[in-house]
Amino acid sequence: MLRCLVVDDQPATTDRLARMLRADPRVARVATAPDATSALRVLHDVDVDIVFTEAQLPGMDGVELAWVLRRFHAAPAVVFVTRCPRRAADAFDVGAIDYLSKPPPPDRLARSLRRVAGTVRHARAITPAAMPAPRPAPATMAPAPADTHHEVIPVETGGTTKLVRRSAVRWVQAVGDYARLHTADGSHLIRARMARLAECWQAAGLVRIHRSYLVQLRYVADVRITDSGQMTVLVDGHQLPVSRRQAPRIRSQMLGAAYSCADR
């Protein structure tokens, strides 16, 4: 049984396609999202086998979304459902399994579902039950395996969506329910909890130095102890506090990195 996600900024189109999918006996569940960023949030919470997306979306468009999905450990299949035929070449470049016109002809929609159903059955047959595929990363963060430094984070800026690489993030500051990502080119605000970021990004070298800060240790230029005994680190000219609880671990990690470089 297939788990589907429909991504379209037109509610009438979304509802119609969702009804068509729910009427197919091969479909177990249909979720919907009005834009790419919302789709990534859905994909963080639930597993999806196939994404039906409009090519022309506000902010990050459907083709850009498909490129992000390719980085998922268990990437869903992508079908474009659009009135924009000029994006067909882009769609197939990104590995889409089909490109349907709006409204999609029932026989073509059924063919797309049949193709994905066969692929999903094969994948499930060879995947050990004890090793479920990990979920993608949060939608406001880029979904990424722990072993890559090239996770992309979709960031909404003035009605457009910019893709920021996690490897470019030098430090992160908590701002309530949001987090401000600082890079060499500026800063970007995303909706994300600091605890979740710390958990997901630790393997990429971003470590928690304080309840309100994460730091990429390789960008630390200086470590100081204030008159009050508090440890601070200097990153891009910003003096960031290290909590007393985290100070021993941070000091140990930085010394370890220094010794490692010296031994090479």
Q: How does this model look, in words?
A:
The chain is an alpha/beta fold and 264 residues long. The chain has helices at residues 11-22, 36-45, 62-69, 88-93, 106-126, 194-201, 247-263; strands at 2-7, 27-33, 50-53, 77-82, 98-101, 152-157, 160-165, 171-175, 178-183, 186-191, 206-210, 213-216, 220-225, 231-235, 238-242. The chain folds into two domains: 2-126, Response regulator (Rossmann fold, 3-Layer(aba) Sandwich), CATH 3.40.50; 152-263, Beta Barrel (OB fold (Dihydrolipoamide Acetyltransferase, E2P)). It is 31% helix and 31% strand. Strands 2-1-3-4-5 form a five-stranded parallel beta sheet. Strands 10-9-8-12-11 form a five-stranded antiparallel beta sheet, covered by helices on one side. It has a three-stranded antiparallel beta sheet with strand order 13-14-15, with no helix packed on it. Strand 3 (50-53), helix 3 and strand 4 (77-82) form a beta-alpha-beta unit. The N and C termini lie far apart (53 Å). Residues 126-150 and 257-264 have low confidence and may be disordered.
